[in-house]
Design goal:
By secondary structure, the protein is mainly alpha-helical. Helices cover 76% and strands 0% of the residues. The chain starts with a helix and ends with a helix. The chain crosses the membrane at residues 78-101, 113-133, 139-156, 195-221, 241-262.
Length: 270
């Protein structure tokens, strides 16, 4: 009986996590194609309305639907997350594989560069760059990805070091395969699972970082909707209309929690 209950819990948790992520992804897509979910459409007759059948998450001070704006904020987070993981995976993962597979001086040189990047205060660095060149989804996603690259590199380097001495790598060298081909065909496929597991952490960092930047006024500029921006807009009405910032905050926390749980389970089964 207890085993069945444990199995049900084991299955229920990832199902709920996938449901949360599906809600965010599907909602983000629908917010881009359905005019009813236009995050900028304002109903001036219904400002600061509480949640109802007409406005599921209520409305803000200008009558804009909080549900539609929350879904649009998910789209912004997805773009930033995709850029973060892509930049971190390609640049950081590539440098990590090169460092782990190459001679000592190459490894040391890459290590020094990565340590310099790690020494930078991440959030402050992004704020400075955004102030200089302007906010945007591409800019913020690329910057967070670059700052996450050292962590990707360390994971990839560690995995590469464990693979470099394997028999199949030695066999490829004996057969005369060039180093680039060995890395592409033998090493990368063994490193990818470890880097993919770390990508879950990068996703949560990107979501929280983008939300924090938008909340502080250094993220996506209005009228682009973002979860952090929605929370910042709603905190001035938190006493009279708490739903304005509560809805995006709950969705943000649920998304981060779902990604963390799935990432932990991926790491166990890897």
């Amino acid at each position: 009986m207890f085993r069945r209950a444990d199995r049900r819990r084991t299955l229920l948790v990832p199902v709920l996590c996938f449901a949360v992520l599906a809600f965010v992804v599907v909602g983000a897509v629908l917010a881009q194609i359905l005019p009813q979910l236009d995050p900028l459409r304002a109903d001036f007759r219904a400002p600061l309305r509480p949640p109802s059948l007409e406005h599921w998450f209520g409305t803000d001070a200008t009558g804009r639907d909080v549900f539609a704006r929350t879904l649009a904020g998910g789209a912004s987070s997805i773009i930033v997350v995709a850029l973060t993981v892509a930049v971190g995976l390609v640049i950081g993962g590539g440098l990590g594989v090169i460092a782990g597979f190459s001679p000592g001086w190459v490894d040391s040189g890459i290590g020094i560069v990565l340590d310099l990047v790690l020494a930078l205060p991440g959030l402050i660095t992004v704020m400075i760059v955004v102030t200089l060149i302007g906010p945007g989804q591409v800019t913020i996603g690329a910057l967070i990805g670059l700052l996450m690259a050292p962590a990707f590199a360390r994971v990839a380097r560690s995995a590469t070091l464990s693979v470099r001495g394997q028999d199949f790598v030695h066999a490829a060298r004996i057969m005369g395969a060039p180093p680039l081909r060995i890395v592409a065909s033998e090493v990368v496929r063994c490193v990818l699972p470890a880097v993919a597991a770390y990508s879950f952490t990068a996703v949560t960092v990107a979501i929280v970082a983008e939300g924090s930047l938008s909340f502080l006024g250094f993220g996506l500029a209005p009228p682009t909707a973002s979860w952090g921006g929605l929370i910042a807009e709603g905190h001035t009405h938190i006493a009279s209309a708490p739903w304005i910032c509560l809805a995006p905050a709950v969705v943000l926390c649920a998304t981060v929690l779902a990604v963390n749980v799935l990432g932990e389970r991926w790491g166990r089964t890897r």
